[in-house]
Amino acid sequence: MSTRKFAAIATGMTLALTLAACGGGGAGTTDDEQPAGDDTAAEDTEGGLIGVSMPTQVSERWIADGDAVKAGLEEAGYEVDLQYAGDDIPTQSQQIDQMITKGAKLLIIAAIDGTALAGQLDAAAAAGIPVIAYDRLIRDSENVDFYVTFDNYNVGVQQATALLVGLGLLDAEGNEVADAPAGPFNIEVFAGSLDDNNAHFFFDGAMETLKPYLDDGTLVIKSGQAEIEQVATLRWAGETAQKRMEDLLTSSYSDGTQVQGVLSPNDTLARGIITALQNAGYTEMPPITGQDAEIASVKLIADGVQFSTIFKDTRKLADQSVAAAQDFLAGEEPEANDTETYDNGVKVVPSYLLESDIVYADNIEALLVESGYWTAEEIAAGQADG
Ligand code: GAL
């Protein structure tokens, strides 16, 4: 790693610490708040304008991402146009068009639909504006210059591992348990939005991990719905997952059999699934997985309702995107650690992948509180501070 890059990341870390100190956690601030150090940043924006396009504020993680990217860029001397598109594809296209018109020097985009932005990217390329895909790959375009994300396949492996741990088939280290219960366990699986490239990676990683257990009959997907097209959830909507779980209970479990485990690809969906099970009279939840360490779900995990989540530290992702932006604007190529995995249909996009962690009730403190992501008070309340 170059010294300059380390300095950039260190700046981000200092900033995250400052934010944590001032705001009680880097994950929960809102766009309305002025980040710490904003006064100085506002005076020193000669770096130019950078457009940051985020999908939605419904899933709280994107608010944390947007705040962290904005703060990091401002700290580095840029002016930031941060926009949320309300999960509406035309709105996102329009917001990006406007960023280009306003003279943005670089774009950082978390796409709603990974295939819907080719027109905007053509315009960006024509204007010589580098594009960084943030967390979600932008597909079908030559004009994506870099991708910062987590190891998405491994996120799916971690989700399935957590489910197997919850069922007592693996121990907390992910090793086979000698006297594991034989099953069969009735499980159901859910996936994210088909237009989100990540949803496919999560599902593939999870299903590959569950496959031996499905093949030998330890696990049974009682509904028979095991294809991503059957189990996907458009726009990652919690209500859609709740409705599907309700339908599954009616169609496949009205004979009195219990759902014994659910693979949920993120926390918003997990909460919808939990609501469906609670409404159907389940007093104790089977193991239900998640992703994003959203505050409402972290509380549910602490309370023994949701079983697990995957912690993707959005502060690290933001730092990485800021470092990549600085490289591009200095005329350099950012450092990639994966140049094979993310083929967007036109080219393999050079990527920087970060690692994620499985969160269970007993490591919430170590992973989320000690790192300053959430405070113990926020977790107890199930809500981010202001
Ligand atoms: C994915 C992202 C997940 C989750 C989901 C819902 O693209 O990688 O972490 O947040 O979107 O918005």
Describe this structure in words.
The chain has 386 residues and is α/β, with parallel strands linked by helices. It is built from 14 helices and eleven strands. It has a six-stranded parallel β-sheet with strand order 2-1-3-4-5-10, with helices on both faces. The protein has a three-stranded parallel β-sheet with strand order 7-6-8, covered by helices on one side. The longest helix is centred in the first third of the chain and has 21 residues, at 3-23. It is globular. The chain starts with a helix and ends in a 5-residue tail after the last helix. 52% of the residues are buried. Bound molecules: beta-D-galactopyranose. The site of beta-D-galactopyranose has 12 residues, from loops.
- Percent helix: 40-55%
Average per-residue pLDDT, rounded, comes to 89
Ligands: beta-D-galactopyranose
Distance between the termini: 36 Å
Largest sheet descriptor = 6 strands, parallel
> What structural class do the secondary elements suggest?
alpha/beta
Number of helices: 14
Question: Based on DSSP secondary structure assignment, what is the total number of beta strands?
Answer: 11
The proportion of strand residues reads: 5-15%
Order of helices and strands: HHEHEHEHEEHEHEHHEHHEHEEHH
Q: What is the alpha-carbon Rg in Å?
A: 21 Å
Would you identify the regions where 5 or more consecutive residues have pLDDT less than 50? 1-43
Short key terms for the protein model shown above:
binds beta-D-galactopyranose; disordered N terminus; 3-stranded parallel sheet; 14 helices; 6-stranded parallel sheet; alpha/beta; globular; 386 residues
